[in-house]
Here is the input.
Amino acid sequence: MTPETLFSLDKKTALVTGGATGIGRMAAEGLLHAGANVLIASRKGEACEEVARELNALGARGRASGFAGDVSTEAGVAALALSVAERTDALHILMNNAGTTWGAPLGEFPYKAFERVFSVNVTGMFALTQQLLPLLRAAAAADDPARVVNVGSVMGEIPMGDGAYSYAVSKSAVHQMTRILAKELAGDDITVNALAPGPFVSNMTAFATSDDATRQRVAEGVPAGRVGNAEDIAGAMQFLCGRGGGYVTGAVIPLSGGINVTTGPAIFDEALS
Here is the structure.
């Protein structure tokens, strides 16, 4: 049971949606270094192609390729599934990372923000997984299942709105969808797990992580005292997708530095101090 045996992804094919930036790119690089051939897709196909070139220049064991893919519509999901099928006849790893958010204060939050966010974060994620089931089943084996990893959020774990109400509720739905699909696909030798990240540097969190001073203020609100980094994502993905993680399904992995277990004020200690 060497690290190579437990975490190698040699000869495996992975798809990472939203893989050109942020957590998706961190995951793609981690999978690449473990030996996987990684398909990177997002709405911005040129950005995916550029990221694939950058990753291939790292000299990792795997190879990357990038192309356009949009999970916000039914037609987009169908087109993306077809693009994947044109590139591989078996998909060992699906990382559903593509997502969107919407921010507005309570009292001003628009009706359309729920439809827009859910169409990508929940409906698109489910629809793409369903479309790719034949390729996942083709890669699955009893002793080495195919893997689906959904990206949720710590905001789906605890009652945190922060002006992103549709996002937080959508991520809670992602966690429940993960558990449901894990139950239904276990017999097909497909595991389904989710990551529940806290703050990481990404385009989505650029308003709070783009400069050192703001990022440090955000870190002060994290029990671990820092924001997440690329190693946190890569390590989780290599575990869940390698043989060492083959017996894990239906889990929501907290990658939030302890935000997921914060419970509010210590009312009795404060009252007695």
About this structure: The chain has eleven helices and seven strands. Residues 3-272 form a domain with the Rossmann fold fold (CATH 3.40.50.720). The first helix runs from residue 3 to 7. The two ends are 51 Å apart (CA to CA).
